[in-house]
Specification:
With 171 residues, this protein is an alpha/beta fold. The chain is built from eight helices and five strands; from the N terminus they run E-H-E-H-H-H-E-H-E-H-H-E-H. It is globular and about 40 Å long.
Length: 171
Protein backbone atom coordinates (compact mmCIF):
# COMPACT_ATOMS: atom_id res chain seq x y z
CA UNK A 1 0.00 0.00 0.00
CA UNK A 2 1.27 3.46 -0.94
CA UNK A 3 -0.42 6.64 0.31
CA UNK A 4 0.55 10.03 -1.09
CA UNK A 5 0.01 13.43 0.51
CA UNK A 6 -0.02 16.58 -1.58
CA UNK A 7 -0.76 20.23 -0.78
CA UNK A 8 0.68 23.70 -0.54
CA UNK A 9 3.76 24.45 1.57
CA UNK A 10 2.73 24.56 5.22
CA UNK A 11 -0.36 22.39 4.75
CA UNK A 12 1.09 19.76 7.10
CA UNK A 13 2.14 17.02 4.66
CA UNK A 14 5.22 15.99 6.65
CA UNK A 15 3.68 16.16 10.14
CA UNK A 16 0.51 14.35 9.04
CA UNK A 17 2.49 11.85 6.96
CA UNK A 18 4.71 10.90 9.88
CA UNK A 19 1.77 10.31 12.22
CA UNK A 20 -0.26 8.49 9.56
CA UNK A 21 2.64 6.14 8.83
CA UNK A 22 3.02 5.42 12.52
CA UNK A 23 -0.68 4.70 12.98
CA UNK A 24 -0.76 2.30 10.01
CA UNK A 25 2.71 0.79 10.64
CA UNK A 26 3.99 2.01 7.30
CA UNK A 27 7.26 3.70 6.39
CA UNK A 28 7.32 7.46 5.84
CA UNK A 29 9.30 9.22 3.13
CA UNK A 30 9.33 12.95 2.40
CA UNK A 31 10.26 13.66 -1.24
CA UNK A 32 12.24 16.79 -0.26
CA UNK A 33 14.39 14.70 2.13
CA UNK A 34 14.82 12.03 -0.56
CA UNK A 35 16.01 14.69 -3.04
CA UNK A 36 18.39 16.22 -0.48
CA UNK A 37 19.88 12.81 0.25
CA UNK A 38 20.34 11.88 -3.42
CA UNK A 39 21.71 15.29 -4.46
CA UNK A 40 23.74 15.66 -1.23
CA UNK A 41 22.50 19.27 -0.96
CA UNK A 42 19.69 21.09 0.81
CA UNK A 43 16.66 22.14 -1.25
CA UNK A 44 17.66 25.78 -0.65
CA UNK A 45 21.18 25.13 -2.01
CA UNK A 46 19.79 23.31 -5.07
CA UNK A 47 17.59 26.35 -5.81
CA UNK A 48 20.36 28.89 -5.24
CA UNK A 49 23.20 26.99 -6.93
CA UNK A 50 21.41 25.23 -9.79
CA UNK A 51 18.12 27.11 -10.19
CA UNK A 52 14.47 26.15 -10.09
CA UNK A 53 14.38 24.46 -13.52
CA UNK A 54 17.10 22.02 -12.45
CA UNK A 55 15.17 21.39 -9.22
CA UNK A 56 11.87 20.72 -11.05
CA UNK A 57 13.52 18.21 -13.40
CA UNK A 58 15.22 16.45 -10.50
CA UNK A 59 11.97 16.50 -8.49
CA UNK A 60 10.05 14.73 -11.30
CA UNK A 61 12.76 12.13 -11.72
CA UNK A 62 13.04 11.39 -7.99
CA UNK A 63 9.26 11.32 -7.53
CA UNK A 64 9.01 8.61 -10.14
CA UNK A 65 11.91 6.62 -8.67
CA UNK A 66 10.48 6.93 -5.18
CA UNK A 67 6.90 6.00 -6.08
CA UNK A 68 7.70 3.11 -8.39
CA UNK A 69 9.87 1.49 -5.71
CA UNK A 70 7.76 2.32 -2.65
CA UNK A 71 6.00 -0.43 -0.74
CA UNK A 72 3.96 0.06 2.39
CA UNK A 73 4.90 3.70 2.53
CA UNK A 74 3.33 7.09 3.16
CA UNK A 75 4.94 9.61 0.80
CA UNK A 76 4.75 13.39 1.30
CA UNK A 77 5.44 15.21 -1.97
CA UNK A 78 6.75 18.79 -2.19
CA UNK A 79 4.21 21.58 -2.51
CA UNK A 80 4.98 22.09 -6.19
CA UNK A 81 5.47 18.45 -7.23
CA UNK A 82 1.97 17.82 -8.68
CA UNK A 83 2.12 21.06 -10.69
CA UNK A 84 4.98 20.31 -13.10
CA UNK A 85 5.32 18.14 -16.20
CA UNK A 86 3.38 14.89 -16.14
CA UNK A 87 3.84 14.42 -12.40
CA UNK A 88 0.15 14.25 -11.52
CA UNK A 89 -0.58 11.84 -14.38
CA UNK A 90 2.27 9.60 -13.28
CA UNK A 91 1.10 9.80 -9.68
CA UNK A 92 -2.52 8.90 -10.45
CA UNK A 93 -1.48 5.99 -12.66
CA UNK A 94 0.33 4.51 -9.67
CA UNK A 95 -2.22 4.96 -6.88
CA UNK A 96 -5.70 6.25 -6.10
CA UNK A 97 -4.66 6.91 -2.51
CA UNK A 98 -3.73 10.53 -3.12
CA UNK A 99 -4.83 13.01 -0.45
CA UNK A 100 -4.84 16.77 -0.92
CA UNK A 101 -4.38 18.53 2.42
CA UNK A 102 -6.46 21.61 1.72
CA UNK A 103 -5.72 24.66 3.88
CA UNK A 104 -7.18 28.15 3.45
CA UNK A 105 -5.05 31.14 2.41
CA UNK A 106 -5.46 32.64 5.91
CA UNK A 107 -4.23 29.49 7.61
CA UNK A 108 -1.26 29.15 5.23
CA UNK A 109 -0.24 32.78 5.74
CA UNK A 110 -0.33 32.27 9.50
CA UNK A 111 1.82 29.14 9.34
CA UNK A 112 4.24 30.26 6.62
CA UNK A 113 5.03 33.71 7.96
CA UNK A 114 6.77 31.89 10.83
CA UNK A 115 8.83 29.61 8.59
CA UNK A 116 9.38 31.33 5.27
CA UNK A 117 13.14 31.57 5.85
CA UNK A 118 13.74 27.91 4.88
CA UNK A 119 11.58 28.09 1.77
CA UNK A 120 13.32 29.31 -1.37
CA UNK A 121 10.10 30.49 -3.02
CA UNK A 122 9.02 32.58 -0.03
CA UNK A 123 12.16 33.80 1.72
CA UNK A 124 12.49 37.08 -0.18
CA UNK A 125 8.87 38.15 0.35
CA UNK A 126 7.92 40.75 2.93
CA UNK A 127 5.05 40.11 5.37
CA UNK A 128 2.82 42.35 3.20
CA UNK A 129 3.67 40.46 0.00
CA UNK A 130 3.24 37.00 1.49
CA UNK A 131 -0.57 36.89 1.54
CA UNK A 132 -0.97 38.11 -2.07
CA UNK A 133 1.70 35.68 -3.25
CA UNK A 134 0.09 32.70 -1.54
CA UNK A 135 -3.41 33.63 -2.77
CA UNK A 136 -2.26 33.83 -6.41
CA UNK A 137 0.02 30.81 -6.21
CA UNK A 138 -2.64 28.63 -4.60
CA UNK A 139 -5.17 29.72 -7.22
CA UNK A 140 -2.75 28.63 -9.98
CA UNK A 141 -1.95 25.35 -8.28
CA UNK A 142 -5.48 24.40 -7.31
CA UNK A 143 -6.19 22.87 -10.73
CA UNK A 144 -3.47 20.30 -10.02
CA UNK A 145 -4.22 19.73 -6.34
CA UNK A 146 -7.91 19.20 -7.01
CA UNK A 147 -7.17 16.22 -9.24
CA UNK A 148 -6.49 14.25 -6.06
CA UNK A 149 -9.21 11.65 -5.48
CA UNK A 150 -9.40 12.72 -1.82
CA UNK A 151 -9.68 16.28 -0.53
CA UNK A 152 -8.95 16.66 3.18
CA UNK A 153 -9.84 19.99 4.80
CA UNK A 154 -7.21 20.76 7.44
CA UNK A 155 -8.14 24.17 8.91
CA UNK A 156 -8.92 23.96 12.60
CA UNK A 157 -8.16 20.23 12.84
CA UNK A 158 -5.50 18.52 14.91
CA UNK A 159 -2.97 16.25 13.26
CA UNK A 160 -4.62 13.18 14.73
CA UNK A 161 -8.07 14.24 13.45
CA UNK A 162 -6.59 14.61 9.96
CA UNK A 163 -4.85 11.24 10.26
CA UNK A 164 -8.13 9.55 11.30
CA UNK A 165 -9.97 11.19 8.41
CA UNK A 166 -7.37 9.91 5.90
CA UNK A 167 -7.24 6.43 7.45
CA UNK A 168 -11.03 6.11 7.10
CA UNK A 169 -10.85 6.79 3.35
CA UNK A 170 -8.05 4.45 2.24
CA UNK A 171 -9.06 2.14 -0.60
C1 LIG B 1 8.05 23.88 -3.01
C2 LIG B 1 7.75 23.26 -1.82
C3 LIG B 1 8.78 22.69 -0.93
C4 LIG B 1 10.03 22.31 -1.72
C5 LIG B 1 10.50 23.45 -2.56
C6 LIG B 1 9.43 23.96 -3.54
C7 LIG B 1 6.92 24.43 -3.82
O1 LIG B 1 8.25 21.55 -0.26
O2 LIG B 1 9.80 21.19 -2.54
O3 LIG B 1 10.89 24.47 -1.69
O4 LIG B 1 7.12 24.68 -5.03
O5 LIG B 1 5.81 24.58 -3.27
P1 LIG B 1 7.22 21.62 1.01
O6 LIG B 1 5.84 21.77 0.46
O7 LIG B 1 7.43 20.30 1.67
O8 LIG B 1 7.65 22.79 1.84
Amino acid sequence: MVLVLIGYMGSGKSAVGRELAEKLSLKFVDLDDFIEEKEEKSISSIFSEKGEIYFRKAESRYMEILLTNAEDTVVALGGGTPCYGRNTDVLLELTANVFYLKASVGELVKRLSREKQHRPLLQRLSEEELEDFIRKHLFERNAYYLRAPHIVEVDGKTISEIVDDIASRIS
